[in-house]
Amino acid sequence: MGKEFNKRRNYVIDKNFQFRFIATFILLIVGSLLIFTGGFACFYWINYMAGDNIFSEFLVIYKQVPDLDDNGEPRLGVDGNQIMKTMELPPINRLEIVLPPILINNVIIVLMISIIGIFYSHKIAGPAYRIEKEIAQVLDGKTGIKIRLRKTDKLKTLAEKVNLLIAELDKHRT
């Protein structure tokens, strides 16, 4: 009976490899995000140098709210509908509107890439670890070793070539 494979429980097999792998992805993403944010800053800087100080401009937002009487009840018009009034909200600087979503977006992207990196790197580190273990068994003199990987694992062609090499070695040992 062949070995049974259990569902993955430990996603960090080779810490050094996996964390370097994830760090490389994060570095690429952070670099891309910095370039994007730098382009955004350049856009505003160019506008500023052209004499258009966007950051000194404030946006005023108007909001419609129900018109209330002295008792706090909404006033009704002759047609029975609520009477609405326009209320001016405090002025907001453009930077206060634009910067938080960009920063939140950058943090979310880095977190998502980190999580995806752990799962994806496991599909490489797990098979590499298994191949390494099986090769160690062959070097210890065991015969009939066959490397089996999960359907979603990477390095399958390498495992197949190593299996051919092990089979050839087994032929020469007997």
Write structural notes for this entry.
The chain is mainly alpha-helical and 174 residues long. α1 packs antiparallel against α2 and α2 packs parallel to α3. The protein starts with 14 loop residues before the first helix and ends with a helix. It contains three helices and four strands; from the N terminus they run αββββαα. It has a two-stranded antiparallel sheet. Strands 2-3 form a two-stranded antiparallel sheet. The protein is 57% helix and 8% strand. It has one domain. The radius of gyration is 31 Å and the shape is elongated.
The whole-angstrom Rg is 31 Å
Strand content: 5-15%
- Spatial strand order of the main sheet: 1-4
Q: What number of structural domains do the residues give?
A: 1
* Mean pLDDT level: 83
Keywords summarizing the entry:
single chain; 174 residues; mainly alpha; two-stranded antiparallel ribbon; 8% strand
